[in-house]
Amino acid sequence: MSASLIQRDAIRPPGRSEARATAALLLAGAGLVAMSLVLPHPSGGHEVALIATALGMALAGLIVWFLSSWVPPTASRVLLAATVLVTGVLIWESGLAVGQYGTIFTWATLISAYFFSRRVAAFHLVWLLLVYAGSLAVVESTGGYSPVTRWLFSAVSLTVVMLFVSNLVARRQHADIRARRFFDLSQDMLSTMDMQGRCIEANAAWQRSLGYRPAEMRGRRLLDLTHPDDHVGATKEAFRVFRGEVSEGLETRVRAKDGSWHWLRTSSVFEPLEGLVYARSTDVTERRANQEERERLMGEVELLARSDALTGLPNRRALDDQLPREMARALRMATPLCLAIIDIDHFKAYNDTHGHLAGDAVLRGCAAAWDGELRGEDMILRFGGEEFLAILSGCSPADATEIVERLRAATPEGQTCSAGLAVWQPGESVDELVARADKALYEAKESGRNRLIAAA
User: Fold this and answer.
1) Which tens digits make up the pLDDT trace of 15-31?
2) Which listed CATH number (3.40.50.10490, 3.40.50.2000, 3.30.450.20, 2.60.120.20) goes with 189-287?
3) Closest alpha carbon to 437 in 371, 388, 377, 385
């Protein structure tokens, strides 16, 4: 037998409740005999036989109680019928058909009416009344009433008890059936779990969503179906629920019967009196996929908004985000920050002579060549037209000059470029720093181009 089947049987095997009720009846009957012998009681009867019978009932009750998980429902019915027969023997051994031992008949009727169908309960009542009739026929005393009168009183009383309890059970069963219909019709995945996290009951939505029939879910630890990466979060949430808090919106990945992973959003609450967790889960796999796709598209849109379509470099919008962060870091770490604006010389004339496609190729070539010459912490972006801007973090003016000259030397297609370099001064704004670098670029172009000028 597999471990999962053992777990399921350990939860609530069929017939265990009936077997334990019968075992309790045997133990209670033995206790009743002991009390009747210890407390003041009428003389007569076979006390040794009563003690032996009581010990046998107690021993049988203990055995049935501890083996109740393996006692099938049919065996419980036979045990109850045997208990009724033993009760008839107790009445005969006591020598008196009046008193405490008839109480066991009432208990047996209650058990049969509660656990068995009305037809089976009726058969048990007939058997009980036959046993009682036999006891009345052989007992020494019937307490002043004729055996027939006492039997009729008992028959009427026990029949009323049986019918009343059977009717209550039938009403409860009808209510359970109605609730079960709503339970199974729900599109949400409803379940109850014990304190070990094992599923006690699951509705049909589990099969519709994950492929597991309710019978397959019973006894299964839901954590075993949860993705390993979600175990910690699920366990923490379970502790919150057991502390009496309501869990809402826990999202975990759960393995379906076909091996695929589904995202479930689960809300749960713990009922301490029953020791059960009531949970409602919704399959949000499609919603999560749509959300992830939306986030991916939004990321692409954001990237496109911050990127230059021609060169693939960041654009001026990225400058508005990146340069303030670099200024803050330079101030915090007391390191220099340099900014250079680079302009391709005579680019308009090149465009007019060779065409815009050739001009675009020069822009792409310059972007790739210059980006490849920078350090990992540096950033180059297209500032507009044929102008590019380089942010050189943690770079002294001398080192920045060397880097910019390296960029100018890497300019492809036989082109040249001019550059203006500025060192950020604490307290200086983005616009002020860019303006100083742009002024230095203008001086470089006015001085004959193909050179670098550092701002004062």
Assistant:
1) 788 899 999 999 998 99
2) 3.30.450.20
3) 388
